[in-house]
Amino acid sequence: MRLPLRLFPFLPAPVRTASSVPAGKLNFVPACSTADARSLELLQDFVSRSRRLFVVTGAGLSTESGIPDYRSEGVGLYARTDRRPMQHTEFTRSAKSRQRYWARNFVGWPQFSSHQPNCAHRTLRSWEEKGKLHWLVTQNVDALHSKAGQTRITELHGCAHRVTCLGCGSITAREQLQRRFVSLNPDWSAQAGAVAPDGDVFLDDEQVLNFRVPSCEQCGGILKPEVTFFGDTVAKATVQFVQERLAEADAVLVIGSSLQVYSGYRVLLAASDKKMPIAILNIGPTRADHLAGLKVKGRCSEVLSVIQPL
């Protein structure tokens, strides 16, 4: 659905905002030119017309905080390595795979958990506070939206800061598990390699052979990060809740996602079926470009910093 345009002639040009990536760390944001003035005017009009904006965010929002994504050209995990993320069936069926995963995650956790929200996260929180943002669905598992203070949020793929037991279903804090790892492995150490989007690092198989993994303190069951691994599905209750919030909204804005994963893409399919206005802000192409009335190419923080929640 395309809306008639209202122009905002005094919309400021985007500026290169300060990155939240610590000095000396790798930059995982793909090369991108500054968004043009016309695109900014159209996006401002889109946001201004919405009274109950539904936002979908992806890994492109967190790259500016120093967390890599999977698919970005030149800088994503797939472009930099031949490594692929953990599969759900591999984790649940293989104790050796779980040992390797948790050893890598243990080494990477201090860095992963220390990442902070960037300007784009804070902007979206302010939109919520001002009543513009009705609901936000994020495909990210890094908790950066929550750290920024977002409350009207669904973490579609869970959160790496939580751990679940596959036996009894109990939920515990990932930081608590880190202390248990330290207690069980007082003399174990490993040299970390490059970080991955889900928080672990690259380690050789030989490095993880003696790493000990604790079981659930309640039932002795298998512990798993409370995230949706590749090959798994999002809980039906979560999907239903998201669809209900979507039905209450009047427009959808995608920020920093290629929407290659179906769980995110189907939100856009549902919005399109409802004839809702759709806009996308992303550096590269997305799976839903053909559904959008507006596509803006640019860095998330740069563009959002000049869009006002009028």
Summary, kept brief:
The chain is an alpha/beta fold.
Strand content: 5-15%
Globular, elongated, flat, extended or rod-shaped: what is the shape? elongated
Which consecutive residue ranges, at least 5 long each, have pLDDT under 50? Answer: 1-10, 15-26
CATH topology: Rossmann fold
Q: Would you tell me the structural class of the helices and strands?
A: alpha/beta
Strand order of the largest sheet: 3-2-1-7-8-9
Per DSSP E runs of 2 or more residues, the count of β-strands stands at: 9
Topology:
Elements: H1 37-49, E1 53-57, H2 59-62, H3 77-80, H4 88-93, H5 95-114, H6 119-129, E2 133-138, H7 144-148, E3 153-155, E4 158-165, E5 171-173, H8 174-184, E6 223-227, H9 236-248, E7 251-255, H10 262-273, E8 278-281, E9 294-296, H11 300-304
Parallel strand pairs: 1-2, 1-7, 2-3, 7-8, 8-9
Antiparallel strand pairs: 4-5, 4-6
Helix pairs in contact: 9-10
Entry keywords:
single chain; 9 strands; Sirtuin_class_II; 310 residues; alpha/beta; three-stranded antiparallel beta sheet; disordered N terminus; zinc ion binding; EC 2.3.1.-; Rossmann fold
Describe it for me?
The chain has 310 residues and is α/β, with parallel strands linked by helices. The protein has one domain: TPP-binding domain (Rossmann fold, 3-Layer(aba) Sandwich), CATH 3.40.50.1220. Helix content is 34%, strand content 14%. It is built from 11 helices and 9 strands. Strands 3-2-1-7-8-9 form a 6-stranded parallel beta sheet, with helices on both faces. A 3-stranded antiparallel beta sheet has the order 5-4-6. Strand 7, helix 10 and strand 8 form a beta-alpha-beta unit. Helix 9 runs parallel beside helix 10. The chain is elongated. 41% of the residues are buried. The N terminus is likely disordered. Belongs to the sirtuin family. Class II subfamily. It catalyses: N(6)-acetyl-L-lysyl-[protein] + NAD(+) + H2O = 2''-O-acetyl-ADP-D-ribose + nicotinamide + L-lysyl-[protein]. It is an enzyme of class 2 (transferase).
